[in-house]
């Protein structure tokens, strides 16, 4: 039995704190990861000081090369490969090819929910094998929402399968998800074996995807709730009837002659101005500089109690009518009312609408906020925003186009865009195919091929140089750089060996394939609570140690861990794509357990048996 040393205790202490932070997210996960890296770097000099003072027998040494190993995550091949893959995904996205494919598919789905579901999972799965699955969901979410709208289907019936199918697809190739790339790197570093090849586990991934798709089309379809009823009117969907109204300015109103900003915006009332109707003209943001005139009609977002107070003191009369989506889109011929989803890595996460100056910055008004199944229609300004929050936004066509181009948001409806580089479709697809071919033929390491492809995207003008930095999800990059040293510390300290011995003890009572299943389900449960990349870093060193002790092939055990870490179905926080659809689908937390729990169990069995079938355990 491995002796419990101060080195192991120090690593376990960091792991326990990190798990608590990953699970509760008092700060973003990438910040926690950097905190882990810094904590590990501080342990060694602190222990040297304690040892020199006679308070510790010997210094704690977690890294053979200090501080190089602790900082190695920033120069790691996995980190750089993932960075390059973000750029490649963005280059493909900018051509509009995926949107064109979606438009083609929508022509035959009609109002059949089954065909819509089949088109959704059939499109996102293969795409996710070659571009980042988070990007695939972000691109396809507006298309799927529109499919549901045109077919009078609840978007709730399609969006959760969209997220799940993207996870299946991510397991088709090495570059399908950052988890695969990280797992390959950790495996190679610990065992000294070659990294995974591009299509090494594609057969297993195809089986997992096929079983998953059949589940979503049958049992999953029945289990997926219809949280949002099929509706065309967004004001009805967000239940805004009691919160939208129109008021007219009386001749004797004290507001006449005042600027809108001072008279109605900078007040203590919980009121948002949506539009101003003056004669035959309708005006949207910015309304602040306009001078109020008698007969002006303002459309407001407020609650009834606030409206009574406003009418009492401001010289306004109520216009007795229900405000509909059509009336909110009178300002011009385009789309003025849309759902906007807060994207992963958004600068607005943790900010409120007020602190981010949302109205002023984007010339847009938020009417309501949906967080999962919860609708918030009053006192929203101070509420900290989260990934997946869905905002009901009214703005001019130009402002909505700016929101659609902003990396902080995903506009959940298809809007007409003219900036796709359709002429570059063959070039961008060719570059990705070239990267895959170079890596698959082992002509170049995957990191070199991916970086070459990223450079080619700029050289061929599929991407502009200024778009490179926006293409990268920097929170994922910093997460990888922060957690990679934790795996190194676990291995060097003996913590991984100790945990492996505890797991190996089950080998006295269970067959080898059952021990493999234990690793899958432990990783899956862990991943549903913390980051998938953190799960891989924690579990792969343990899996390799356990496999070696049992006389099994470490590769098979690593595959089980990798597949489990990339298929977190049971919570909205388990995977970024689950958070993407949480608000737009109006889901409850329990929906993920209801639909994803049986799927997790089914794929656990399929993956475990599949690993044993395709790859020898010994």
UniProtKB/TrEMBL annotation:
It holds the Pfam family TrkA_C. One of its GO terms (cellular component) is membrane. The chain crosses the membrane at residues 33-63, 70-88, 117-141, 162-183, 195-217, 427-459, 471-490, 502-523, 555-575, 595-615. It is a multi-pass membrane protein. Residues 232-316, 325-409 form the RCK C-terminal domain. Its main location: membrane. InterPro entries: Cit_transptr-like_dom, DASS-Related_Transporters, RCK_C, RCK_C_sf. Keywords: Membrane, Repeat, Transmembrane, Transmembrane helix, Transport. It is found in: Membrane. PANTHER family: BASIC AMINO ACID ANTIPORTER YFCC-RELATED. This is SLC13 family permease. It comes from Haloferax chudinovii.
